[in-house]
Amino acid sequence: MRKIKYKSPDELKLHTDKNRQETAAFLKKLKKKKPKTLDDVVHTLHYEAFDSFSCLDCANCCKTIGPRLTDKDIERLARHLKMKPSAFHEQYVQVDEDNDFVFKEHPCPFLMPDNYCMVYESRPRACREYPHTDRKRFVQILNLSHKNCETCPVVYEVFDELKNGNQNLL
Ligand code: SF4
Ligand code: SF4
């Protein structure tokens, strides 16, 4: 895998748009074939990528998309900040068009200027799991991950490697 360089969401969107049809055709074949090695290949690329690229040089996800929040996330964050969950809710949370709880603001209110997360140990589950390139049954989230190519430089490069690298998936 080539060395990952930071790309802004605008740059990633441009690159993703440029390859959109080619990527969609590739994903269609992947969904049909469901290669047994897909998870292993993606997980290896994930660890290779994060060995050389730090989220602290990026924070695109914290700046532009933000996590979906569960009740447990809200309770844990409120405890971390020594607030009542209702007060936390009032100050930071809104309901989005899908009826999910999300933060009121982007960038995330807990993102610090040096890209550290102020509530890292208590961060929402969705923040822990993003960008999902280490999860099992990756074939189930190919479309979501295609969307994430517009935000995350690691997902963009993982997809590039799946399409153009030496992975023999198809
Ligand atoms: S998960 Fe992806 S988008 Fe988020 S900070 Fe890390 S590299 Fe950037
Ligand atoms: S809670 Fe932390 S990890 Fe999650 S979006 Fe905010 S700054 Fe990023």
Structure notes:
- With 170 residues, the chain is mainly alpha-helical.
- It has two domains: 9-61 and 132-164, no CATH class; 68-129, no CATH class.
- It has a three-stranded antiparallel β-sheet with strand order 1-3-2.
- The chain has helices spanning 9-18, 20-33, 38-52, 60-64, 71-80, 85-92, 125-129, 142-148, 153-164, and strands at 68-69, 93-95, 101-103.
- The model has no long low-confidence stretch (mean pLDDT 96).
- The chain is elongated and about 50 Å long.
- Residues 62, 66-67, 108, 110-111, 117, 119, 123-124, 127 line the site of one iron/sulfur cluster (SF4).
- Pfam families: CxxCxxCC.
- This is Zinc-or iron-chelating domain-containing protein.
Helix and strand topology:
Blueprint lengths: L8 H10 L1 H14 L4 H15 L7 H5 L3 E2 L1 H10 L4 H8 E3 L5 E3 L21 H5 L12 H7 L4 H12 L6
Antiparallel strand pairs: 1-3, 2-3
Helix pairs in contact: 3-9, 5-6
This protein binds iron/sulfur cluster (2 copies).
One iron/sulfur cluster binds next to loops.
